[in-house]
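Researcher: Here's a chain I'd like modeled. Treat it as a single chain, no partners, no ligands.
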Amino acid sequence: MRIAVVSAPSRRRPPVDYVQALAKGMESMGHRVDVIDAWTDNGMRLPGYEYIVIAAEPVSFFSAKIPEMLPKFLSAGSGIGGKKSAAFVKKEGLRSGKTLINLMKAMEKEGMVVNWSDILFNAPHAEAMGKRIGA
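Model: Modeled as a single isolated chain. Structure tokens:
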């Protein structure tokens, strides 16, 4: 399966270790995985993937907001309505559960079908979750 892993960290920086571990877990199951940075890419490539995974972080320790560029990134990818997807949030701060809900709402607003969501604690946990996608 062709999978896009969208990295949406709280600020501009290269994809972090848990995103790479998530992609590594999916690749170990035989999937073709591309990591896309939501800060530098524009979402136009998303319709070409069979499955879309969003890995986000809360904006701050006390906030439940997702990064402001993520809804813009998703809306640029026209044709993603009906795509199966997964939502993952890095466990940071006090309101990770609410951040996950906000992420899923943004994805569902664009018509994506979120069939899996979870909070990621560290890189080994992310790799284990990646092995379950598409299995």
